[in-house]
Known about the structure:
Helix content: 40-55%
Strand content: 5-15%
Low-confidence stretches: 1-10
Strand order of the largest sheet: 1-2
Mean pLDDT: 81
Order of helices and strands: HHHEHEEEH
Largest sheet: 2 strands, parallel
Number of helices: 5
Number of strands: 4
Amino acid sequence: xxxxxxxxxxxxxxxxxxxxxxxxxxxxxxxxxxxxxxxxxxxxxxxxxxxxxxxxxxxxxxxxxxxxxxxxxxxxxxxxxxxxxxxxxxxxxxxxxxxxxxxxxxxxxxxxxxxxxxxxxxxxxxxxxxxxxxxxxxxxxxxxxxxxxxxxxxx
Length: 155
């Protein structure tokens, strides 16, 4: 049985960062993992979080800890499913600032089209297939038109 969402799995941001994504399972010792986590938190100007309890972090800060835990694995592709759900707009913008300079391919999934306004490419997938692929402006327009037609027909 899984613990409730509000129950922290780990006691500090440092333990959450390396335990959640498995630095120790990748063969790093606890000291090596701590060093790597420490360097990562320092790079993002969050070193004070190292010994801080996860339960004291805001929802947006928890999102960042999760993002950092994945980035430490150095993936080639980053797949984020609804990464901005439950956070305020300023925090969303800050997380987007962290995502923008990444070398990885970032695939973002969201049901909020405005999320993608500042991205290079947008693919709208619906009913098991690609409905549109192109610039965010063009795809969002097609999506909004389709949703308007759907509403007119079904509501």
